[in-house]
What does this fold into?
Amino acid sequence: MTDELIGKYIAGEATAEEAAAVRRWLAENPDHPAELARLERIWQAAGTRPRLISSQPGTYDTDRAWQQVRAQMHRPDSEAIPEPEIRPLARPERLRWLVWARVAATVLLVSTLSFLVYRLFQTPDAIAPTSTTFLTQTTTTQTRQITLPDGSTVLLNRRSSLRYPDTFTGQTREVTLTGEGFFDVKPNKSQPFIIHAQDTDVRVVGTSFGVRAYDRAVRVSVKTGRVLVRKRQQEVALVPGQEATVDAVADTLRRLPRFDVNTLAYSTKHLHFTNQTLSSVVATLSNYYQTDINLAASRLQNCRLTATFENEPVETVLGVVAETLSLSVKRTEKGFVLTGEGCGQ
It folds into this structure.
């Protein structure tokens, strides 16, 4: 198949016989249609248009045009005119998104730079502390003496815990007690001291007192100074020797004119009994040593005891009680039991 005939076929100048010959050529080999398509692309890409050779419309110089195309046909593939790349136009929605993204990025950059400049020129004194560190002291079988940041002291009884900040800031000094403790508070009228115990608050300025709060039946005993005890809308003021108790069942607050000196025995290490019933003595010893002490018979409850103990172990104290009242002491899995006829008879 000659180039001239293919050119005339592409240009639409071939006769019916010539067009039939080209179609037969296309059918002879499966590669021929691809070759024809390549030549057509070259013709279109070259932008070649036959020139008019006369003033009559529709008369073109096809031979001259095909000579120009033939030069493109016989170029190597690497030099062939590439097909134009078609790129889709950006959608309006995507363009709007890009604009907003750029605006947001600009605002973020300006804000970040402004913050960094502010922190750079801010004085250290103007930067407030971000948080307060809290400490927790806990006891199990022994008492513990604790000194608070303001110099106040707390003797924490057995099975108790105290939570307090590493420094007292603000208008008050506040701590939280679970269990029992004896407080000796440094005076500071401008910064009152507050103890949160269960759902009861104890407020003082400078004084010494004990707080028992193993459960909601809170008890406050004052040794020196003045203490204000508050439970919801109820409030009582205490002076030395007085005590306030919370009735956990009735949820009420009551003030007592005096308290048992053995109430603060864990802080004084001193136990004193004057003609007290054995049932009262056993209750005090159980509370002080935090162990179970029971009577083998109810008839022993009314036996009377007068004795003083100074920092003695529980075994020694029970031995003296048993010897005084003609009793015997037996150890149990949970503690001790007093048995016998009793009352020194």
In short: The mean pLDDT is 81.
